[in-house]
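Two folds, back to back.
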Amino acid sequence: MSNKESFVKAFKELTGLDDDKNTGTADESFERLISEREFIGEPAGDMRMRTEPVAPKKTEVYVPDRTRGDGTYVTQGMNIAGVVTSADNIEVLGRIDGDVDVKGDFISEGIIVGDIAANNVLTKKSSVVKGEIKAEGAAVIEKDVTVIGNITAGNIRIDGKVKGNLFVEGNTELTANALVAGDIQTARISVSSGSRIKGSIITKSVETQVDEDEFDIEV
């Protein structure tokens, strides 16, 4: 007797379906078959469940949470060489060698060697910028920041070091740690004790235009 025939005979004996030994009714044989199927681990219930394909398990990709808002984030240790343009915000901890043109806001704690154009420009910590800064809104130069280049902005606040001329449409605020080596053209200026300026200051404002006749008085 072959191995296959021996296996079939043994299975029939185990399930009670052996023709020579099966003396029960068909229902009894069926009940014994169900019992043995459950014993050997076949699924109970609707037979259709056995033929339905099992959906493949999806591969899960880990995506770290963004903690700095929308936009582009240049991490510390990352160096970019070339022109950088973006319609969104950019935050830099690394280094960019090239001009930066941003429609949103530009925040830097890294090194920028090139011109920066953005809506608002915020440089902080030990950031270094070697190039011109153009901010349609505000430009903020925090303590320990060094900028070598002219700055054009709507408003500006400086608590770091700037070597270049300032062209400000609105307010200029120089706080205690400010050092400006260059000329300042602004509508209004506020200078705190401790700040240093090496250059001339010119204030121009429509609101404060002075008629020369006002000084035409007799003494």
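---
second:
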Amino acid sequence: MSLTELLDENAILVDLKATQKQEVIEELAAALTASGRISDNREVLQAVLEREKIMSTGIGKGVAIPHGKCKAVDKLVGVLGIKKEGVDFQSLDEQPVYLFFLLVSPLNVSGPHIRALAHISRLLRHDNLRKRLIATENPRDALALIAEEEESM
């Protein structure tokens, strides 16, 4: 599964307002709710926040992939959030996070969830893409950057 299949322009927030970890997760979940792609915002928040208690999903290099599984979705859904100033997300490298990919999948489905996590990790190990995404000004440009990078993989 490619990110361009998972995301659309309505699932990309290029100017997150949140300044703290939980606020970021809440803002991203709210975007999924507004898009009609999740049926229960509270359930999604609970699943993602419970997962964060186990270990931060801030994977380093300015990237976090908060994720969870719950009954509020019938297929894998995702949203990208960008915060140009960065947020303390208790990342593994103890650096601020600028790019947030929130993923939510059904309870009984593991394959797409794990593949999406791995794909995002591979894609965002490229410094140039991370820098260009952080600098992007609109969802259309962010999606185009991701599509361009995926085509070259």
